[in-house]
């Protein structure tokens, strides 16, 4: 009986530290990323980041990170990420509404995706950048996608909003 209770206690402790978002297809468990919790941005993937398939990335920016209006979003990713993106299949959502995009550029050599909304995205709103028709890399790994923004009328220096730690299985 003691053995059963101790096993149950250990199992309960382990399950309680495993984040609930992981059960629902959220970010997953990242123990040693080198990125502080405050700088990690939430995301989800429609097909759980499996290798060699087409996927949809939903890269989220919480409202508290959107301190100023944004005229340009820039997503940079590491050299180790060998997937591909479809610039024609990018959306910006503010709350539940789509925002019109004037242009999306994907620079393969520089490993950067630039997204230009027609009108600046307002401050204080939660934002979702939806990248559809993404071809995941053919091998597993963890990849840090950095989010930088430019504000209208601001000094043309990008501000970092955080990092999406994307795992490919």
Count the DSSP helices: 2
Query: Strand portion, in percent?
Result: 35-45%
The helix/strand series, from N terminus to C terminus, equals HHEEEEEEEEEE
Query: In CATH's first tier, which class of the largest domain applies?
Result: Mainly Beta
Instruction: Provide the domain count.
Output: 2
Shape assignment? globular
User: Mind telling me the C-alpha Rg?
Assistant: 18 Å
Classify the secondary structure makeup into a structural class.
mainly beta
Count all strands and give the number. 10
Low-confidence stretches: 4-32
Specify the helix fraction band. 10-25%
- The CATH architecture of the largest domain can be given as Sandwich
CATH topology of the largest domain: Immunoglobulin-like
Distance between the termini: 39 Å
Rounded average pLDDT: 84
Q: How would you write the strand order of the largest sheet?
A: 1-2-8-4-5
| Largest sheet geometry | 5 strands, antiparallel
Overall description:
The protein is mainly β and 169 residues long. It is 12% helix and 39% strand. The strands form 2 sheets. A 5-stranded antiparallel β-sheet has the order 1-2-8-4-5, with no helix packed on it. Strands 6-7-3-9-10 form a 5-stranded antiparallel β-sheet, with no helix packed on it. Strand 4 and strand 5 form a beta hairpin. The longest helix has 16 residues. About 17% of the residues have low confidence.
